[in-house]
Design goal:
The chain has about 600 residues and is of the alpha/beta class. It folds into three domains: about 5-235, Aminohydrolase, N-terminal nucleophile (Ntn) domain (Glutamine Phosphoribosylpyrophosphate, subunit 1, domain 1); about 245-435, 3-Layer(aba) Sandwich (Rossmann fold), CATH 3.40.50; about 440-580, 3-Layer(aba) Sandwich (Rossmann fold), CATH 3.40.50.10490. About 35% of the residues lie in helices and about 20% in strands. Helix 3 (about 105-110) runs parallel beside helix 4 (about 120-135). The N and C termini lie close together (about 10 Å). Bound molecules: 5-amino-5-deoxy-1-O-phosphono-D-mannitol.
Amino acid sequence: MCGIVGVVGHPQAVEILVNGLKRLEYRGYDSAGIYLQDHQQLVKAVGPLKALEGKLTPEINGTLGIGHTRWATHGKATEENAHPHTSEAGDFILVHNGVIENYRELKEKYLSADHFYGETDSEIAVHLIAHFAKESTNTKEAFKKALAVIEGSYAFGLIDASDNDTLYAAKNKSPLLIGLGAGFNVIASDALAVLDYTTEFLEIHDGELAVLTAASVQLEDACGHGVKRESFVPEIDSNDLDKGTYPFYMLKEIDEQPMAIRRIVKEYLHEGQHITPALLAALKEADSINLVACGTSWHASRIGAHFFSEWVAKPASALLASEAGYRMPLFSAKPFFIFLSQSGETADSRQVLVRVKELGYPSLTITNVLGSTLARESDFALPILAGPEIAVASTKAYTAQIAVLACLAQALAPKEEQIDLAHELSLVANGMDSLISEKETIAAQADQYLATTRNAFYIGRYMDYEVSLEAALKLKEISYIQAEGFAAGELKHGTIALIEEGTPVLAIINDPVTASHTRGNIQEVKSRGANVYTIVREDLAQAQDNLQVPVVNPLLSPLVSIVPAQLIAYYATLQRGLDVDKPRNLAKSVTVE
Ligand code: M6R
């Protein structure tokens, strides 16, 4: 979702802003803009960053600037609604990420005489700062007064048009970091945006305000007290951000899965890193495990819930954060909460974490970004070690989350339930490798089964049902084929009515116990004309099956059976000529509720 970059004190401010916004493209956006203070130049464009770049001339330059990519929430994707926004007299310029919940009240109370160009809540914020500037001695004071009355989530970058040396920033519930440079400083929604310019970062916590010049950074809390904080160096290599020879990040990230699993085996199981005695003690103390997540991470949580139920005999369930945030279910006496989030910034999940903390329950975040909001705010954090995931469709984060959950559940498991997880996960990594080497076959099959269809169904039972949910999400979010994942036995309770001549039904069969039942469901849909494609465990395969997956531990089978489904989604999308990495309407990091 929206991305922010700001810079003060660097002669190549335009380059930093544009490159930074490019690095944030993966988050999703539909318009973009930059403002350069030195010559007071504001440039905005709807559509891809190329459109903005096309408007940049060599005369547009300076040392102080802010940039923004906008994913429309309040108001359409238009230049008027694109950021940066200016106050009525043009004396303040602002970029915003988040949602100002009380913008209507603020407009009525303070800004009833103002004229607005667009429809965004963000424009209210910059007008509000200008309003308070009239009764303040300086910009910081005006900014603080505005922050005190704004309700909701925000990351702000602010420039005072009469000051060529200062960049202001503030955050609440939306991500924002300060990057410390030599003779310059930057702000960014994500460290990835500015890694080419600095590797040293400073967190801004919720409610804090920052004043940056080329040579200094001052942080203060909502009460105006100065804050001293250690800087940190994120564990990201800017080389990880390049596609290399791959046409799309998604394909690169699918291919990186075996490597991520081997890294987890090494760090979690061979070197015994990450899972601390304190975390294990807190988990042992709990009488239930509640996994909270959205989208693909929720699908991984559902698989994790099986690990805790089956290996640890602890009641475990996966909660959809976007639902639990509004109505928390009834919990056991001593619940433990595990948040799963690739980005660590998902607002729906954070909303639940805030509530969980208010209730005094212990929490762990399993994430790809250890410096993220969810990781910082929960009691414990575990990395999934997948490396940056750029494609909107999550692939390696799903399998890495499941592998880390397996490590955690096995660390808690009683002796009789313990398996040689390092060995089992190594088999998984090898199995992934062999499936990845069948790309050409899978591409041809995707073409054969999905080239012209408007809808498709994935079916499976038990762990195969869990994979069906994720397989269908992958297919629909990038190819726009309406795809649904079903528990195979549920089809005949309603959905089978949708099966007609040629409807693709993709069946996953990994579980010896339920294999014959799923085969029965295949017959049911075949006799109604379905075009059935089967992904089947090697030792359960029959002559007519389409693709065989290697045998692994049954509970870990989603880690291998998802790989062909990811590749099917990738190739079906490619064949339709769509942008695999940046599907329409979607954002990588969903930072609004
Ligand atoms: O960063 P998170 O894991 O919290 O994101 C959760 C979902 O938004 C995410 O998994 C989404 O469903 C992806 N587009 C799936 O590919």
